[in-house]
Design a protein that fits this description.
It comes from Nocardioides gansuensis. With about 425 residues, the chain is an alpha+beta fold. Among the domains are: about 80 residues, SH3 type barrels, CATH 2.30.30.240; about 70 residues, MgtE N-terminal domain-like (MgtE N-terminal fold); about 110 residues, CBS-domain, CATH 3.10.580.10. Strands 2, 3, 4, 5, 6, 7 and 8 form a seven-stranded mixed β-sheet that branches. Strand 17 and strand 18 form a beta hairpin. Helix 3 crosses helix 5. The radius of gyration is 25 Å and the shape is elongated. About 40% of the residues are buried.
Length: about 425
């Protein structure tokens, strides 16, 4: 393998794209697998865990890696698309080694691992050669002093810890998109996952929960104390929270709803009242809602919110008071493209598309799909019999409910077939 640096720090590679010989991106780096034999011998780096299309994690042997630089990884292009399964003799660098408590023998320094480096040995194998250690913070210093030590000068790396921290793994997860972080957490050993969940703040945990499979969501939520579980549910989008609460034991669900803020709980209860796989059950009750006297500038300021998905930011809804769902009568919706063509001082009411037909909350999933496809929409309003806005259904809401549970595996099999041609 040709590579620019002779020593490579592995935590820095997480998230880098993986390219085939033709220059096409085929995966992303998620972790590295090592054979941790003892603290005296340098562990051999067996390969990397890469995430391919469909969020499937596969194993890429180091013999398939042709080069690594600061921005990308190149492979031979011959990848085994079988899902990665960790063996008992293997250790994940990011998932299991970061945050281990270690001691530097030559200096007596104690701290936690925040990175490890690999180098190529004389026999061309890649081995772990350096350990980056951070001391605990002292006094008013925000971060403790850092040290780089030789692998054989560090003790504690081969010892499994029941109470291993998660500070540096959390730092790596916070650099990822929620869907990518969820995939890492899904594959962590149970004790490591518990430590990570405990260390994540409520908002980040909510983002990650929304991307996890239902069984993982339920398992994680049931291991939280009730107060924190309710706080996390409040941070989730109401439609995702409603889906999750519906999977819980009725007594647990009732307890958590009682602990949530009344307004947040009311939104969730309302969504749970609709029949499954209908517009009412799929919609979000928090689209961008404006009064008729709002200006184009007001509308554009609202859709700039980075927490809005592209589909939710594509339409703003103009309604009579009150502006919380269920609102006053819906007057119409304004498309973002139209807003961008109008003077900022113009009233948003002048830009509404009043010909846009709304959906009813009992509309079936097929009716919702046909409606969005017919009118080339990425979102549509949902109203009650009195014309009050209840929420909006987006195309991503629709896809979440229309795709089969195993769609990712099917997509990966298709990718694997194309890769063997």
């Amino acid at each position: 393998m040709s590579t620019a640096p002779s020593r490579i720090y592995l935590a820095r590679l997480v998230g880098l794209p993986v390219f085939d010989p033709l220059g096409d991106q085929v995966a992303k780096v998620r972790d590295f697998v090592v054979a941790l034999r003892s603290e005296s011998s340098q562990p051999r780096v067996l390969g990397m865990v890469a995430e391919v299309f469909g969020r499937r994690r596969i194993f890429v042997p180091m013999t398939r890696v042709t080069s690594i630089d600061s921005g990308q990884v190149h492979t031979t292009g011959l990848l085994n698309m079988r899902r990665f399964e960790q063996r008992s003799t293997e250790t994940l660098v990011v998932g299991q080694m970061l945050d281990r408590q270690v001691t530097v023998k030559s200096t007596g320094v104690q701290g936690t691992v925040y990175d490890v480096a690999m180098e190529q040995a004389r026999n061309r194998d890649w081995v772990l050669s350096r350990v980056a250690v951070q001391e605990p913070s002292k006094g008013f210093r925000r971060r403790g002093q850092t040290h780089i030590a030789e692998w054989n000068d560090v003790t504690g790396l081969a010892r499994r810890e029941a109470s291993q921290g998660a500070t540096h793994l959390i730092a790596a997860l916070n650099e990822m998109r929620p869907a990518d972080a969820a995939n890492v957490i899904h594959d962590l050993p149970p004790e490591r996952r518990t430590a990570v969940v405990a260390a994540l703040d409520d908002e980040r945990l909510a983002d990650v929960l929304e991307e996890l499979p239902e069984e993982d969501q339920v398992e994680i939520l049931e291991h939280l104390d009730s107060e924190r579980a309710a706080d996390v549910l409040e941070e989730m989008s109401p439609d995702d929270a409603a889906d999750l609460i519906a999977d819980l034991h009725p007594e647990t669900a009732a307890t958590l709803l009682g602990l949530m803020e009344p307004e947040e709980a009311e939104d969730v209860r309302r969504l749970m009242s609709y029949e499954e796989m209908t517009a009412g059950a799929m919609m979000t009750p928090e689209p961008v809602i404006l009064s008729p006297d709002a200006t184009i500038a007001d509308a554009l300021a609202r859709v700039r919110n980075p927490e809005l998905t592209p589909a939710l930011a594509a339409l703003v809804y103009v309604c009579r008071q009150p502006l919380e769902t269920p609102t006053g009568r819906l007057l119409g919706a304004a498309h973002i493209q139209r807003l961008l063509r109008e003077p900022p001082s113009t009233l948003v009411a002048a830009a509404v598309d009043d010909s846009l037909d709304p959906l009813r909350p009992d509309a079936t999933i097929d009716e919702v799909a046909a409606h969005l496809a017919t009118y080339n929409l990425v979102a549509a309003p949902v109203v009650d019999d009195e014309g009050r806005l209840l929420g909006a259904v987006t195309v991503d809401d629709l896809l979440d409910h229309m795709l089969p549970e195993n769609w990712r595996d099917q997509a990966v099999r298709g990718l694997a077939k194309r890769g063997r041609r």
